[in-house]
Write a structure and sequence with these properties.
The complex is a heterodimer of chains A (97) and B (871).
Chain A: E1 6-8, E2 11-13, H1 16-29, H2 38-49, H3 54-58, E3 64-69, E4 75-80, E5 86-89, H4 91-96
Antiparallel strand pairs in A: 1-2, 3-4, 4-5
Chain B: H1 3-14, H2 16-30, E1 34-36, H3 38-41, H4 48-58, H5 64-80, H6 84-96, H7 100-108, H8 116-120, H9 122-134, E2 136-139, E3 144-147, H10 150-161, E4 164-169, H11 175-188, E5 194-198, H12 202-216, E6 222-225, H13 231-237, E7 242-247, H14 249-259, E8 267-270, H15 281-295, E9 300-306, E10 324-328, E11 335-344, E12 347-355, E13 362-368, H16 376-387, E14 393-396, H17 400-413, H18 422-434, H19 441-445, E15 449-452, H20 458-469, E16 475-478, E17 492-495, E18 499-500, E19 504-505, H21 508-515, E20 526-532, H22 555-560, H23 565-575, H24 585-601, H25 615-629, H26 636-641, H27 647-659, H28 677-692, H29 702-713, H30 718-731, H31 738-774, H32 787-793, H33 798-805, H34 810-817, H35 827-837, H36 848-858, E21 869-870
Chain lengths: 97, 871
Amino acid sequence: MPSKPLTIGPLHFAKKGDAAAFLQAILHRYDVGDKVSPADEQVLRDALALHPEAGAKIGCGITHFSVRSADFGTKCFWINRPDGTTEKFSYKACLTG
Amino acid sequence: MSLIDLQAWLLNEGIKTELDELTKRTVVTEIDNLVPSADSVAVVEIDWSRLLLAGSILARSDQRLHQEAALRIATGAVTLSTSDPVKDAGTVLLGKLSNFRAIALAGERNLLTADLDGRLGMSLRIEAQRRQMDKAILVESSGRWLQVNDFQQRFWKDAADHRWLSASAPTASGKTFLVLQWLIDQMRSGKARVAVYLAPTRALVSEIEGSLVALLGKESGVQVSSLPLRDKYDAALAGGARLIFVFTQERLHLFANILGDAIAINLLIVDEAHKIGDNQRGVILQDAIERAARANPGLQLVFISPSTQNPEELLADAPEGVEVAAIDSDAPTVLQNVIVAEQVPGKPKLWNLSVRQHDAPLPVGVLRLASSPAGLRKRLAFIAVAAGERGGTLVYANRAADSEEIADLISQLLAPADLPDPELLELADLARKGVHPQFRLAPLVERGVAFHYGNMPSLIRLEVERLFRSGKIRFLICTSTLIEGVNLSCRTIVLRGPRKGIGHPMEPHDFWNLAGRAGRWGDEFQGNIICIDPHDTNAWPVGVPARSRYPIKRESDAVIELGDGLADYLDRRATATLPELEHSDQFEQVGSYLLATYLRLGSISQAALAKRHDPAKVAKLDGRLAAIASQIDIGSEIAGRHPGVSALGLQRLLDAFRAYEGDIENLLPAAVDSQDSYDRFVTIMRRINEHLFPAFMPDGLIPLHALIVVQWLKGFSLAAMIRKNIDYHRSRGRAFRLPVLIRHTMELVEQTARFRAPKYFSAYMDILNLHLRGIGRVDLIEHDLDIGTQLEFGVSSRTLLSLMELGLSRMSAVALYEKIARDDLSKEGCQAWVAEREAQFEGMDIPAIILREIREKLLPESSEQAATSTT
């Protein structure tokens, strides 16, 4: 089956794997505990819009994104909301949604 | 025959047989369940007049063996004889030995018939009076005379006209008591405004602080504090209440950092000063002393150490022209009997006991055990229970886990009390609520048995010590924390193959430091040290150690003398990747100290240490240090602020910050209550490992270390941290054993949150702030409480810190803070909060010991003890 192109905001990827690699590269640029930079934040906002549970994940809004640890020693992106709550999300879910 | 020859002859021949008999008889009175051995039934009559005359001749000697014999004769006469004239003569002999506390004890125990003075006759009374006046010192500030022994008198006299003083005497010589009296006298008579008492462990800090507060009493005009905070210090310098700080060496550095080195200490007392030779922390102590002496060249300095060979070694660095004095005493104050216990062949329940003499062991009898002691722990437990049945018995265990097991075994052999003591029940309640409902200490304490090791919370440990002293805890099983400087004495010590640390047989001087705890001067006439299986070379590789005194040697000198190891390490330090340095503890601290010294002076040949070493070696080290120093631009001040942390590591960290390409804010720790703080700490620990020093290893355990640090900073109670650790294991399906998990959590709190994290995070923040200033981001520098202080005390809120400033232990402060809504209360605010709710406390389910502490410290008017102390 030919791979499908994918668009995240203004970014166009010939196939989903390229988009995954792009987002993974962003993730690995950060240490756990880091706040995501404004440039990367825009990419994440666009990616999150594709998430199947985007509404629930965003909740009352987004102040910023951070990279934190997840299960089994891995790390992932987290949404920090205005009410102080946080929610993690998988960039892979954004691509399959 | 000269006097010296006569004394030697008396001991070796003249009274040898009778002295042996006396030894047997005194030992037998102190050991329970002992059937006297057959040969001791053939009684040798004791000729007291002959012995007492010999004792008076031996008392004139300054040799320990002679003094010991004189003390044994005097003690025997007072405690064993039924004749008044013999008892009276024994008392006079005790007076000759300046052992007034033993005389007082004989009086308290009604061993002496009233009106001794009347019976002595005029000439002896005149002599006794002269002796009492000779052996008394005047406490200037109170005008009171204090009766002292020879060591104490020499200390008091020499301290008056020598600026640097080093005093050494065996345990139970009244060192600490006298030094505290002297310190208070100095403060009250206005000779010092700010004094620091340095103690090696937090346990000893608490103990000394408590003693000072009790000795000072109410409205003394002298404050005591163990918190490195500057308000009381500023007040003292401005003419307010004089101040005694009680610190560990790390806290003194922390305090000097807060004051920016302009630290005006008038008087520094270094307790357990021989610990200047300890691996890793010895050099931090040396650095702290040198730092205080540099800041005030007029500093008065007093070193005290137990039974050291060369107390004068500590005076080697005194500035030129300063009067120095070393006081060395080896005189015994109580009898200490080393007894060896060997199983009767084929009869595991019967054990032969012999007193070890200088030539041959002296059999005293057979000890009968209640059960057969299969295994080493059972041997310790059963022999302790049999021999030390009447209590005051200390058992030495090599590991914390062993101490719990042995305590459990002992408790099973004791009949439960019909009505357990209320104080023991309170301690059990604190153990259940403060640690865990299943913490093993709780049911043991209810039976009068306890264990004691270093990582236990201080409030519990102090209460264990207090109840052991009072006799309510009859058996205490301890680890090496006790020889690390807790002043706790006992009637009997039982041990088998003692180790210090993991696997290292105890050095003879450590053994004797521990053995010195047997015999409470003023409470007992003698103490017994029972050594099990003396001929088992696994237990005792070189046998039961002969009496020995500690040779003082600075850690820095010892490492420098190791040969080229240090120079090679310095080379490697400059080039190797840090994870390769994981096992470099031997050299890192001393290397850091030398590098900081080099940066300050431009050459270590200018430092005091240079005169103690071969100039060629010093020059070689100077060369290596010069090569490293050329790579460093952080400045000597920052290097000096972090003892034991290499300036090269600090520089590497600064370089890493400079090269960092991400958002600068990511380098800062996040507020501890924020969601990001845990992960931020994980990353900071990785940076520390990578650039500063591999302090949090292995890498896979960093998340656990970070979790503990965050929970500690959030002000979680130990009980909550243990609960969370259990939940963590359960949620991940990991097996755990509760006693191990409890001990491990305590260890992580003490070793990571309270030792490593403050040391390395403080350095991290200092370098980060230097970088932030360098790039014009001063706006990011926090001016709140520094992270080192936060970690040392495990607080991040103003309210918690206020509670601790008022003197509460962390355990009590956290228990109370759980009930207080506001996180910004001042000391006065906390006091008001407590005063308003005092009547409601009983319903709050707070352990009684914590409530007692809260009332003592926060409601001074409702307590007999004035709240002049801050813990």
